[in-house]
Amino acid sequence: MWDVLRAFYSRATQVGWEEVEVSGAEAGTAQKRGVRMVVGVTSPQTCLVLSGRLRALREAGFEVTVVSSPGELLQRTVEADGVDACSIPMRRGIAPVADLGAFLGILWFLLRRRPRIVEFSTPKAGLLGSVAACCLCIPQRVYMLRGLKLESASGWKRRVLVGAERMAARCAHVVLCNSESLRQEALALGVAPARKLVVLGDGSSNGVDMERFRPEGASAMRARLDLPDGEPVLGFVGRLTGDKGIPELLDAFDLVLERYPRCWLLLVGWFDAAEDELSQELQARVADHPRIRHTGFVADTAGYYRVMDVLLLPTHREGFPNVALEASATGIPVITTEATGARDAVLAEVTGLLVPPGYPEALAEAAVGLLGDEAKRKRMGTAARAWVGERYSQERVLRLTTEFYRRRVFGQAGV
User: Fold this and answer.
1) Do 4 and 80 meet the contact criterion of CB atoms below 8 Å apart?
2) pLDDT computed for residue 218 by the predictor
3) Is the whole-model pTM more than 0.70?
4) Bridge partners (DSSP) listed for residue 68
5) 36-61: buried (b, 16+ CB within 10 Å) or exposed (e) per residue?
6) pLDDT tens digit string along 378-397?
7) DSSP tag of 14
């Protein structure tokens, strides 16, 4: 039977079975034997928020294997954190034949690996992995809710996504939510009962490295980006997509230029070919705008925050935005929206400002207000770094994470 499933998987994904496994040991980063744990995500892009977290789990006594679609970021994470990986092609959109192939691939891998605990997240891997782990009666099953894609969907697609979230949650023993507002939204949508929905500490899955994201001089980066000294810079970090609010950001920036014609917009991120990808017209608008600097994908974003006066994140939905924490740790105020997840990342009027999602006028007004008040910007930036350091330092977040998983497996944190 398994030979038949293996053949179907290879045919459905057009990838030979022997070609999909990657080992951290082969990269010279072999991990010690411990409790077997599988962490699954759909896209290698998500590995950007796993780095550090995987190492902490390994050092806490887990023999970690990452399951993801193949990609350079997956391999980079394997080498950096000293874990193993199995690459199984998964599509982010709905693709029944490919999805069945991916499900069988995960099922076969879990059957051979026999982990004691699994954590699957992101919509596709979360559904396929959680169902596969449930079918095999994996002893500890965690579904990590990093956000709700369904919030920006409508019609039949929204119904499908709601059903998928509920199925993934039903197959898990616990649903680990990235933020308190995400937990509340999941409860309201009936994704899972309250007893299953858990937030560790104040939220966030990885925290922020306070030393790496620290305020310091930015003259070298300004010169590299050809941004003249003394001219204000509004910044954005992340995927350039519709759900991230890029269309509104561009409209808001044009309104800001009416008040501050020497202002710049720094976009640190890439045009993601997702379901909410930007139109060619909007991409051209970014490329041709005389006051926009667009970097494309950047692996290490720390130096770019130091160029910014304010971070803008006009997102429609989040789990808990890491970029807001990184900007705050760098000592700059954040303007984001009242959307799920995003509103947890700012103390309104203390570390930044909140505006309604989808309103470029409100975004522009908030940005103009902060650009015109340097004292307020500095006050907010100082408060932001202190707040993040107290609640969202990587040390604290990862300690809570490893304690949570050790309790799940051993029954107590210190064993």
Assistant:
1) no
2) 67
3) yes
4) 87
5) bbbbbbbbbbbbbbbebbbbbbbebb
6) 999 999 999 999 999 999 99
7) T
pLDDT bucket at 146, cuts 50 / 70 / 90:
very high
Edge-to-edge strands, sheet with 84-87 = 21-22, 84-87, 62-68, 35-40, 117-121, 140-145, 174-177, 197-199
List Cα–Cα distances, 111 to 8, 29, 41, in angstroms.
Answer: 16, 24, 18
Query: Which residue is it, tokens 């507002």?
Result: 181
Residue 47 contacts residue 66 (beta carbons within 8 Å):
yes
Type of residue found at 302: A
**By three-state DSSP, how is residue 175 classified?**
strand
8 A C-beta contact, residue 351 and residue 330: no
Give tens-digit pLDDT for 152-198: 888 999 999 999 999 999 999 999 999 999 999 999 999 999 999 99
Q: Measured between alpha carbons, how far is residue 358 from residues 173, 195, 257 in Å?
A: 36, 33, 19
In the predicted model, what is the mean pLDDT of residues 95-108?
92
CB-CB contact of 333 with 377 (8 Å): yes
The tokens of 284 are what? 């051209």
Cα–Cα distance, 222 to 224 (Å, whole number): 5
Going along the chain from its start, the domains and CATH numbers come out as 2-206+394-410 (3.40.50.2000), 219-391 (3.40.50.2000)
The pLDDT tens digits of the residues spanning 203-240 come to 999 999 999 999 986 678 999 999 999 999 999 999 99
Nearest to 306 by CA among 217, 373, 383, 232: 217
What is the token pair recorded at 97? Answer: 């034949």
- pLDDT category, 264, cuts 50, 70, 90? very high
| DSSP letter (8 states) at residue 376 | H
